[in-house]
Amino acid sequence: MKKNRMTYLDMAKGIGILLMIVGHTISLGWQKDLIYSFHMPLFFVCSGMTMVLSNNWLEWREAAKKSAKRLLLPALVLFMVMTLWTYLVEGQFDAAYTKDFALNRLASLLLASGSDVMVFGKEVAAIGLLWFLPALFFARLLLDALHLLMPKKWESLVLLAWALVLILHLPLPLALDLGLAGMGFVDIGIWLRERLPQWEQEGKKKIATGDKALIGAGIFWFLAFLLQEKSAVLAFDMAQRDYGITFLGLAMAACGSLSLILLCRKLEKYVRADGFLATCGRYSMLLLSIHYLGYLPYLYYGSLFPMGVVRCLLRLVLEVCFSFFLILWKKKKEIQQEVWWSRLAFLAVFLLQMNYLLFCRFPGGLQYDSINQLTQVVTGQYSNHHPIYHTLWLTLGAKLAEILGGDLTLGVFFFTVMQVLVFSYMVSYLLKTLQQIGIRQRYLGIILGYFLVFPYHLFFAAYVNKDTLFTCCGVIFVVSFYRLSCAHFAGSKRADVWHMLIGGLGLALLRSNGLVAIGILFFIFLLGHKKDGESIRLAVMGCVVAISVVLVAGLRLFPEINPGYESEKFSIPIQQIARVIAEDKELSKEERQAVDALCPEVSHMTGQTFSQFIHDNYNPWRADEIKGQIQFWGRDAYLKEHKSDYLKLWVSLGLRYPDIYFQAWVKMTNGYWGWRGYSDYHHVTYENGLGVKNMILLPKVNRAVNAYLLFMQENTIMKYFLHPSSAWWCCVAFLLMQLRKKRERGNLYVLPLTVAWTLFVAVPLNGEVRYVYILYGCLPFLAAILFDRTAE
């Protein structure tokens, strides 16, 4: 960053470029007219603030060359890229179409500007916002030439040029007429630059001239805008060559630009030179380029949102984020590395996932569980079967959509965007931590790539389920747990405490085995507590456990919330009893009667007793066929009431048929430790009766991503590498190695391993990757801590 940059001008240009994106997105109305009343003239005025007039024609020629490289060359390159992009998107490649297309685009480049124009009775299409670059080039060039030709009367000639533009209203090639109009605004910028130092040297006891100018210009702009809106003439819009009421429109635009610049000058001392607005202004050319090239993608994803405010906000966020990503890449050596890696990771993950979400899986990946939760949101009949606190996140998205006039589809999208933000932040926090402890940059790049394209991360980040947020909270908890143990992070202790607390609460409330895992870690830490430095981690875990227990137990105060299914906790015991029956092992009359009494309603549907139904429908790797009947017929209350009786039945059959029980357990769990079976993850649209519309804007891209996901999971080698068992045994191996190397860091493994271990005693489905997704989130961090010497 140059030391002589005027931050207030960067701020003004930053506001201007953001308003340009908003103005190009919102519908017609007074809000659009308000933006257009000054936002493009603002850039001409700012250009005049920095313009140095030439002393001779040699300097003029050098200035012209520099301006051509800075303004005309980018305009030409952007136009050619957009032309090629448009041609490829339209997909007509025959010779006749290609010739007509090339001639029309060439005519647009030479003759058109921000609006369509008629040339010899033929309409020439606009080139969009690129009109501004040649217009600014000619404005600076002509004004500088007038200054050299008539040093004492050049400002009068500028006013004459304004008059000619208004009177003739004649479109000229390369937006030359707009350059003549802009020349006056550039002159105003020169005038302001010469007077600002004098205004700021005035005494503080009276109102400074600069303050008077700010107030006066602002009042005039506002009153002129009101008059313009109430009149029947067209609104001010330089791109359309509409200047509103004669001369009043130009004066309004000038005063609006001046008031904003002076306001930014007043606020300059309160902001950082590298702040958000100043950075946007400093790289306004980049933002303009991204906005111009982003028009075609916007035509696709903008069609998904009927609400203008959503389209506007989304377009603004995406284009600004992509611009900042490129700025970060360019300024790597100028920014503190921990900040650089943190921001780069966040932006890279966020942009990738948002584009995948918008173009391939809008409004988010849905499946049976998430549709069930959405049904609760719509009906208001909540259940804690899927954690109620996760369902409330979905409710928040739906309520926000309702406020903005959207439907449930938009609500699901809002939830998914929130999830993508959390996922992006998790990766950012992890990469920042590893950079701070000195992990080599090439390893940081590998880890970032892992979170970007590893199949499960690519799939789950925008997948609507509790497991993604659960994993994000788990990784944040583990990373903050590590940071609080290192003196290296003493300066960020307060922030790390908050990270650990929020991550722990997310773990405990989003899945019941998360609370179990934190409780076990707390118990281990409590027993082994020796160092005073560990007190803060123990206190945070104690708070997490206490708050979570209160929040979970507090659900009993709301009888309208169904507490969930009792049978869900006993998936494996139910499967073990079912396998005994499926293999025709002997049961006493009382035992068989007890099984049939558990779900007698089955006979109404199938004509079979429940034990006969179990015999015919037992699935060794999924519990839903059996426990699903208990849940479907509402027999959970009966199971809970007679829990001791069925516990005795389970023990009795287990003592007689321990081998059968073991086989049932193996079949239900070996997908997590024995490389048996694997799950396919790829995006398909799920039908639902809630009105949630799944949209795939780019089917070819979606098929390509699905092909990549399936190839990685079906390839002879990769399917074992990606299997949940590999993640489990890697984590176990890393733990054993860590215990030998630095024993106290073994605590980092307790949480993810306990989450996975709980699946060995209660799991409804064998080999479901999402249940152990936390392992995939924690493993790169644990590996970096274990193997890199800089982490010692």
Automatic annotation (TrEMBL):
Keywords assigned: Acyltransferase, Membrane, Transferase, Transmembrane, Transmembrane helix
Domain Acyltransferase: 7-325
Superkingdom, taxonomy of origin: Bacteria
Record-level Gene Ontology MF annotations: acyltransferase activity
A UniProt-annotated Pfam family: DUF6020
Transmembrane segments: 12-30, 36-58, 70-88, 124-142, 154-170, 243-264, 276-296, 308-328, 340-359, 408-431, 443-462, 468-485, 497-526, 538-558, 746-765, 771-787
The protein, known as: Acyltransferase family protein
Organism this protein belongs to: Roseburia lenta
